[in-house]
Amino acid sequence: MTIGLDTSVVVRLLTGEPASAARAAARRLEAAADTGERVVVCDLVVIETYHALHHHYGVPQSEARALLQRFLVSGVVHPEPGEIVPALTATGAGLADHVIHARYRGLGAVTLTFDRRQGNLEGAVRLRG
Known about the structure:
Number of helices: 7
Largest sheet: 3 strands, parallel
Order of helices and strands: EHHEHHEHHEHE
């Protein structure tokens, strides 16, 4: 079986709060590892977790990105789609903009945007209004 983690689970794992929920999440991931279940984290959960860590837990943006990157390359979970990991270390645009752009590039599409920073990404086209 494949298990997809929700933002609420990832936030508890990364913050340890509340402790009882964090322990329950950790136990379930340990059980998944013991039984060979695949645990996936989608890009939308990564973006939500990033915003929750920064806005609700006061984690600086660079630290939130680093926490998520370590979690996604730990081997305990598998990022889906895989383009999310490079987006965590990319510069020049926001995390969500990088993920959106990576999704479209994966589809062979051009990202059309009014955003200056996203428009500077390779393969993006900036509109001017």
